[in-house]
């Protein structure tokens, strides 16, 4: 029997080579993330594969699974260790090789595999690895499945089964790109597009798709380099956005598009070099798609702008918006359950249902949607479309460090603090609290519409803080100062990665 994983082994020891290492903190709310090799070793990855196979059979799902890996120095070896475990648990594995996460999700449909296990650390820094998993296309695992997987793996209660198999699917990227192009409407407008990939996986695929659509591509950091020398491939990272903005202005591009490390997210910079946060892009797309599909429902996460409820154009189109928990798995599931036309996350995960997409998040399909929006507005630039939105002042996603084993407790404490303030009529930043949304952390809204959000990151040892004000930039900063003051009452909260 394969050994039960240990939680604490040291590299460069005999034990590290003889036993599986799996740190419990790697099991997140809806996927898995570890530092490699200090938090998980290759035997630990085998144990994870055994656990996935055991869970798939326990769920009664047909044991066909598609897998791929992102572009990092160690991802291929991790995928092979995962495959060894999954085969031993009786899964029939179809390996698509180097891939984007949405390419693996597409594989569930194109290769008729109910299950997926994509080896990726997404936008996390170099040194991280992880797996995004699902057994009910187009959805991925949520907390219930992740909790059960954690129990199986850490308890060593995986089950061996006969019937495991392996097949390498050659040339699958061409099938994926061809499908995307078939979903795109021919562009009538000549467009110049900066395609930024942060030296990550998307560089192998995004420029090829954009060229196939007939746009002029200005490549930016598309060459492979898993040290990510310029910036992390993360369209929420201001360094990446600044680099795109510089390239847009230098080359006179119509739009800049930035893709994250595994290609399921897309960030946008307009033709004037203005960095547009993804929630505002979502409002613009909702306006555009709402004209084609009036009365549609959209799902957005709690980090997103309040414009989804207050924008007069969306109101005129009878658009319905559902604010839901942040996280690709949560929004994906909610879009599926509500039959929404699309779901938008401030992080840049966009989920398009039929007739646009299949319900999963795909940064390349998001790029198509942005280009089609520009094509449907031939007399207006990206900046014009952005300026047409009601003005709000918003922060980027800001993440103060907070250890995985305490971050949820801190958020609970902060939530109770804000509840007590509201009950006592105590103002925040000099304004009355009129609403608290606690579906995912706590979102505090004041009477002038200014709001602040505090939640625990689902995949890193951090909290997440977002602020927006429809009133003024001064109110934005005042709200951030007030929210941060409450956070600082908790000594476990560390420094931010970026602030306003």
Automatic annotation (TrEMBL):
Residues 26-154, 175-273, 279-391 form the Alpha-D-phosphohexomutase alpha/beta/alpha domain. SUPFAM superfamilies: Phosphoglucomutase, C-terminal domain, Phosphoglucomutase, first 3 domains. Residues 427-484 form the Alpha-D-phosphohexomutase C-terminal domain. Pfam families: PGM_PMM_I (PF02878), PGM_PMM_II (PF02879), PGM_PMM_III (PF02880), PGM_PMM_IV (PF00408). Keywords: Isomerase, Magnesium, Metal-binding, Phosphoprotein. Transmembrane segments: none annotated. Its cofactor is Mg(2+). Gene3D superfamilies: Alpha-D-Glucose-1,6-Bisphosphate, subunit A, domain 3, Alpha-D-phosphohexomutase, C-terminal domain. Belongs to the phosphohexose mutase family. This is Phosphomannomutase/phosphoglucomutase. It comes from Methylobacterium brachiatum.
């Amino acid at each position: 029997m394969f050994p039960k994983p240990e939680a604490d082994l040291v590299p460069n020891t005999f034990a590290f080579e003889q036993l599986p290492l799996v740190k419990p903190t790697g099991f997140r709310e809806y996927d898995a993330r570890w530092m490699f090799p200090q938090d998980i070793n290759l035997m630990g990855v085998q144990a994870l594969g055994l656990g996935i196979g055991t869970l798939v059979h326990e769920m009664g799902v047909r044991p066909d699974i598609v897998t791929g890996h992102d572009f990092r120095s160690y991802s291929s070896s991790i995928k092979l260790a995962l495959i060894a475990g999954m085969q031993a648990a009786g899964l029939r594995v179809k390996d698509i090789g180097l891939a984007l996460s949405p390419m693996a999700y597409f594989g569930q449909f194109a290769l008729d595999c109910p299950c997926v296990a994509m080896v990726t650390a997404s936008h996390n820094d170099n040194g991280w690895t992880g797996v995004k998993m699902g057994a009910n296309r187009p959805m991925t695992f949520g907390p219930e499945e992740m909790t059960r997987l954690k129990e199986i793996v850490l308890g060593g209660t995986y089950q061996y089964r006969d019937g495991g198999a392996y097949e390498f699917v050659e040339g699958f990227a061409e099938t994926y790109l061809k499908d995307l192009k078939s979903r795109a409407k021919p562009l009538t407008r000549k467009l110049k597009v900066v395609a930024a990939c942060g030296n990550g996986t998307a560089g192998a695929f995004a420029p090829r798709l954009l060229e196939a659509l007939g746009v002029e591509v200005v490549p930016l950091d598309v060459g492979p380099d898993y040290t990510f020398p310029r910036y992390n491939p993360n369209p929420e990272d201001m360094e990446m956005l600044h680099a795109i903005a510089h390239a847009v202005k230098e080359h006179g591009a119509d739009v800049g598009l930035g893709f994250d490390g595994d290609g399921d997210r897309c960030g946008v910079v307009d033709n004037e070099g203005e960095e547009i946060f993804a929630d505002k892009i979502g409002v613009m797309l909702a306006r555009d798609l709402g004209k084609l599909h009036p009365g549609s429902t959209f799902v957005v996460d709690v980090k997103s702008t309040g414009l989804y409820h207050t924008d007069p154009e969306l109101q005129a189109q009878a658009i319905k918006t559902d604010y839901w928990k942040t996280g690709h798995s949560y929004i994906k599931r909610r879009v599926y359950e509500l039959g929404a036309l699309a779901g938008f996350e401030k992080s840049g995960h966009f989920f398009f249902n039929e007739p646009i997409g299949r319900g999963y998040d795909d940064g390349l399909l998001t790029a198509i949607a942005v280009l089609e929006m520009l094509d449907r507005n031939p007399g207006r630039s990206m900046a014009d479309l952005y300026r047409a939105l009601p003005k709000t002042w918003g922060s980027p996603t800001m993440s103060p460090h907070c250890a995985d084993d305490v971050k949820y407790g801190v958020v609970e404490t902060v939530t109770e603090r804000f509840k007590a303030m509201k009950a006592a009529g105590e103002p925040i930043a000099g304004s009355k609290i009129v609403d608290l949304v606690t579906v995912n952390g706590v979102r505090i809204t004041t009477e002038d519409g200014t709001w602040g959000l505090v939640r625990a990151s689902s995949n890193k040892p951090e909290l997440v803080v977002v602020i927006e004000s429809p009133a003024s930039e001064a109110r934005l900063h005042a709200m951030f100062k007030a929210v941060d003051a409450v956070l600082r009452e908790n000594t476990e909260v560390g420094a931010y990665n970026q602030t306003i």
